[in-house]
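Exam revision sheet. Question 4 asks you to relate a sequence to its structure. Input first:
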Amino acid sequence: MGYHDTLALLAGLLSENRKPKPAHAALEPWEAEIRSLIGGNKEEHRDPMRAKTAWQVVSRRHELDGKTSYESFKRFVRDRGLAAPALSAVCAIGE
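Answer key, C-alpha cells:
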C-alpha cells in the first residue's frame, strides 16, 4: 500500500477535529455586505472601512448584538479572506 493510499484510508477513519462556529453561521448571510464594507466600492465612491467599523455597521443593521462578538467577526473575516489587502503597483526609478 502506497503513501497516498494510506492517507486516503486514514482520512476515512478519522473525523475532522473542528469546533462548531455558530457565529460564522450568523454572519454568513451578510458576507457580501461585509466584503463590500471592508473592500469599499469604487463605482459608488465608497472608501473601504476598517474591520471594527464594518462590524459596528453590520451588528447594528442586522441586530447581531449578543449573537456574535467582534472577535468572532474578525475570525470570520480572516477565514473568508475578506480583509485581503489591495495590491498596489510600485515603480522604482534607478539612477
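Marking note for examiners. The chain has a mean pLDDT of 85.
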